[in-house]
Amino acid sequence: MNVIAADAKPELNDSLPSMKIAEPNDAARPVAGQSLQQGKAGLDDALSVTPASSLSAKRTRSPEKESRITGQPGFVLHSYPYKETSLIVDVFTRDYGRIALIAKGAKRPHSRLRGVLQTFQPLSVGWSGKSEVRTLTAAEWVGGLLPLEKSALLCGFYLNELLVKLLARDDPHPVLFDHYVSTLNQLAHNEPAPIVLRKFELALLKETGVAGDFTICTATGQAVEPDHMYVVDPERGPRPARPADMSPQVSGRTLLDMEQENYADSATQTQSKFLMRFLLAHHLGGTPLNTRQILLDLMQL
Predict the structure, then answer these.
(1) pLDDT value at position 300?
(2) 3-state DSSP call for residue 286?
(3) Whole-angstrom Cα distance, residue 196 to residue 192?
């Protein structure tokens, strides 16, 4: 394994370029999604995203006063050009959350960073600096995961878009990081994508503190009844359904199954799909999920 070192940090403009989710190129090691190569140019445009939602912006914390970090597990969520030869890379790390790093010289034709800073590949990264955007000092490909291919690759982009839009920077979520690794592994092994994604979506909302306990009815304080119908208030949680409700109605059984990550029942699969779509739309504040639309078109998720 080789450690790739980066040079000193350049001056950063006040406003950063618009972001795009990065995707593996032919130099990636290993190369993921060979069967999608012909459609990648159009897919890259379709996967364009905007910076984190206003919800995340409100929760962004000032970076800790570290001077140098080494050997931190992480994944590239996306990257975008900075000046002529560099990249700004959005990395999801285990102990520091989502951080922005300048990878100086990464766009140069012979830069070894081009084959290392790829999405869905486990990395060991290092950086220095105290500002919101630090300087990448080292990146090492550590392996251990199968590459995502075909529809699993699209699902991976969907996960990354969720993290970019719902996670505040510098907000550690080690449990969510481990769930992300597990989700990538399940997708790579062709486990049912709808179930895998439902589990991750709920874990994301719970770990970021915007989803509570689905087993308790907030209106009564009592346990959810499997044979009753409920709606889930995005800010408060489950309550009994009413005839006039426009929100998705789900059975108590579905809510209990979701808490236990049990999606064996077809009704749970269907109801959880519409419930999570509703909750995510609320917490995204109307910001569209571009990758979800692609998945809806291709897989009817």
Answers:
(1) 57
(2) coil
(3) 6
What pLDDT, on the 0 to 100 scale, is given for residue 288?
A: 87
Determine the Cα–Cα distance for residues 101 and 146; give it in Å rounded to an integer.
25
Residue with tokens 């000092």: 137
CATH classification of 3-146 is 2.40.50.140, yes or no?
Answer: yes
Q: Which phi and psi angles does 73 have, rounded to 5°?
A: -65, 140
Q: How confident is the model at residue 294 (pLDDT cuts 50, 70, 90)?
A: confident
- Please indicate whether residue 65 or residue 15 has the higher confidence score (pLDDT): 65
Contact (CB, 8 A) for 172 and 34: no
233 SS3 class: strand
Tell me the C-alpha to C-alpha distance, in Å, between residue 71 and each of 63, 105, 126: 18, 21, 6
Q: Where in the chain is the domain with CATH 2.40.50.140?
A: 3-146
Write down the pLDDT at residue 65: 59
**DSSP state, residue 103:** E
Within 214-259, residue ranges assigned H as helices are: 252-259
Predicted confidence at residue 10, as pLDDT, reads 37
d(C-alpha 200, C-alpha 198), whole Å: 5
Interatomic CA distance for residues 250 and 174, integer angstroms: 30
Is the per-residue pLDDT at 29 higher than 70? no
What average pLDDT does the segment 51-76 reach? 66
In this structure, which topology does domain 192-299 adopt according to CATH? de novo design (two linked rop proteins) (1.20.1440)
Q: How many CA atoms lie within 13 A of 39 on its CB side?
A: 11
What average pLDDT does the segment 68-96 reach? 95
Find out whether 123 and 115 touch, Cβ atoms under 8 Å: no
CA gap 122, 140 in Å, rounded:
9
Q: Is the peptide bond before 288 cis (omega within 30 degrees of 0)?
A: no
Instruction: Give residues with Cβ within 8 angstroms of 245, minimum separation 6.
Output: 231
